[in-house]
C-alpha cells in the first residue's frame, strides 16, 4: 500500500507553497490536503474551540477548513482521511521558521499536532519572503519525508526544514539546533477614521545570533537546515536544580 | 525600588482568576495588568499580525487589549509599562495546564512571550473547571514568584504552576516534569439554520498517563505542581542520531 500523506500549511490552501509540496509529495504516496481556507501565519498552536468550523471540499482529496493549521490536522484525522496518515508534511511556508519562530509558527504547529497524535511529521519553509523557489523547497521536503518514511522518528519529535532561497535541489543538508532570531519590537500607533487610536504589531527581522550549528547559520551558509523539534517542553536540567528551592515547602514564618 | 510585576492571562481581564492573582501579587511589588479584553483560551502563542489592536485603560495600572496573551505582553513591554518588569505572572487560569496542554495554552504563552524577552515568568492554573479556589492558587503563585524574584531563573525557562482544587495554601509543592493528558478526539457535526453542515472541536478530558514525577500525578496527589518549561525546542539527543541520515547528502541515483 502506498503511504498516505497528509499535507497542511498556514499560508492557506491557495498558497503556491502548498501546491508545490503536493506535487513533490505525490511521488511518494497518496496525498490528502487539509489546509486553512485563509492565511493563518503566526497563529501557533491555536485551536478553535469557541466557533464552529466549515469544511469546503476543493477536489477529491483536497479540503479547505475555516480554521488554524491545528484545527485542520485535528479535523483531517477525525473527519476527512480514510485512515491514519503515515506522515504529515506542513508547508511550504513562505518565509523562514527558524529559532524562536518555531514557537509562533502555524506551519510548525500543523506538524506538531500530527506529532502529538504519534504521526511522523515534517515542517518545511522557504527561508525568504521574496523568493518563489517553492519547487526546490518542496523537493527538499520530499527527500526528508522519504527518509522519515523509511526510518521513522522518535515519539514526540518532528523535523523542521528551512530551505535557503538561492539553492538548487543538490544543496547540502545540515542537521541543526534551533538558533535565535531578532525582530524589531515595533508597535505602530495610529488613529482610525473616527480618530480612535489603534496599535499594530510589526517589525522587520533584525538578524540572528551567529551560533555555529544552528538553523540560522546553516541557511546563511546556503545549506538546507533540518532541526529535530521536541514536544516535551520540560527543562530536565533545571528540574534537578529546583529541588534546592526548599523555601516553598517550609512552613510560613 | 519595589519589583514591577506584569500580570496577564488568557481567560480575559474580567475573569476571577486574574483578580485573585493581582491581589496576591500586590504584596510583592507594583502590579501592572495587561490582559485580553475577552477570553482567549487555547490560542497558544498566536500573535495578531493582520489586524490592529485596541488598548482600553480600565484603571491606573490596568489595561485590556483586544488580542491574545502574546499580544498583551508584547504591547505591555513596548507601549504601556513605565519600565521593564522584574517578573511576569500569567493566570490564574480556570482549568489545568498540564502535560501537552502547555503547547496549546494561552496562559503559558503569555509567560513564554515574557520569557523570550528575558523576563523571569510564571504561569499558574487552578486545575479544575469547577473549583473557584482562585485565592489559594494565587497565593501559591505568589510564593513561587517570591522565590523567582530572589533566585532568578535561567534564560529561556519559565515555571508552570498547577494548583489542585481541593487544597489550602499549606499544600506541599512538588517539582515535576510535564506529563501526558488525553482528550477525546471528538468533533461534533451538526447543521446550521440554513442546513449547511458545521463542525465543532470539543471532547472531554479522558485522563492522563500515570507517570511518577509528572505534573498530572502531583496534582492528583493533592500537591502544587511546579514544572520548568523551556523555550529551546531542539531535541539534542536525536540531533546526534540524525547525523546517520547520510542518504540526504548522497548524490541522487
Automatic annotation (TrEMBL), chains A, B:
What are the annotated GO cellular component locations?
cytoplasm
Listed InterPro entries: SurE, SurE-like_Pase/nucleotidase, SurE-like_sf
Catalytic activity reported: a ribonucleoside 5'-phosphate + H2O = a ribonucleoside + phosphate
- Occurrences of domain Survival protein SurE-like phosphatase/nucleotidase (ranges): 5-184
Gene3D superfamilies according to UniProt: Survival protein SurE-like phosphatase/nucleotidase (3.40.1210.10)
Cofactor(s) essential for the protein: a divalent metal cation; Mg(2+)
Enzyme Commission number(s): 3.1.3.5
One GO term in the molecular function aspect is: metal ion binding
Give the subcellular location.
Cytoplasm
Note describing how the cofactor binds: Binds 1 divalent metal cation per subunit.
Q: Name the SUPFAM superfamilies on file.
A: SurE-like (SSF64167)
Uppermost EC category: hydrolase
Where in this chain does the entry annotate a coiled-coil region?
Answer: none
Residues bound to a divalent metal cation are: 10-11, 41, 93
Question: Which terms are listed as keywords in the entry?
Answer: Cytoplasm, Hydrolase, Metal-binding, Nucleotide-binding
Give the protein family.
Answer: Belongs to the SurE nucleotidase family.
What exactly does this protein do?
Answer: Nucleotidase that shows phosphatase activity on nucleoside 5'-monophosphates.
Q: What is this protein called?
A: 5'-nucleotidase SurE
Which species does the entry assign this protein to? Microvenator marinus
Gene that this sequence comes from: surE
Amino acid at each position: 500500500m502506498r503511504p498516505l500523506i497528509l499535507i497542511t500549511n498556514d499560508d492557506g490552501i491557495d498558497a503556491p507553497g502548498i501546491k508545490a509540496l503536493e506535487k513533490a509529495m505525490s511521488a511518494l504516496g497518496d496525498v490528502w490536503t487539509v489546509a486553512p481556507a485563509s492565511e493563518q501565519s503566526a497563529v501557533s498552536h491555536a485551536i478553535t474551540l469557541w466557533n464552529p468550523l466549515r469544511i469546503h471540499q476543493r477536489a477529491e482529496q483536497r479540503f479547505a477548513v475555516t480554521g488554524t493549521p491545528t484545527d485542520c490536522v485535528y479535523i483531517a484525522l477525525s473527519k476527512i482521511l480514510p485512515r491514519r496518515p503515515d506522515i504529515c508534511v506542513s508547508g511550504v511556508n513562505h518565509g523562514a521558521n527558524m529559532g524562536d519562530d518555531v514557537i509562533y509558527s502555524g506551519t510548525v504547529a500543523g506538524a506538531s499536532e500530527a506529532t502529538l497524535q504519534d504521526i511522523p511529521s515534517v515542517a518545511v519553509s522557504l527561508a525568504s519572503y521574496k523568493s518563489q523557489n517553492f519547487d526546490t523547497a518542496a523537493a527538499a521536503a520530499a527527500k526528508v519525508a522519504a527518509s522519515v518514511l523509511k526510518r521513522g522518528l522518535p515519539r514526540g519529535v518532528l523535523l523542521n526544514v528551512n530551505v535557503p532561497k538561492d539553492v538548487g535541489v543538490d544543496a547540502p543538508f545540515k542537521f541543526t539546533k534551533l538558533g535565535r532570531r531578532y525582530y524589531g519590537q515595533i508597535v505602530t500607533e495610529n488613529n482610525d477614521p473616527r480618530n480612535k487610536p489603534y496599535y499594530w504589531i510589526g517589525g522587520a527581522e533584525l538578524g540572528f545570533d551567529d551560533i555555529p550549528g544552528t538553523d540560522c547559520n546553516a541557511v546563511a551558509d546556503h545549506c538546507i537546515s533540518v532541526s529535530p523539534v521536541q514536544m516535551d517542553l520540560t527543562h530536565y536540567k533545571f528540574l534537578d536544580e529546583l529541588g534546592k528551592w526548599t523555601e516553598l515547602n517550609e512552613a510560613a514564618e
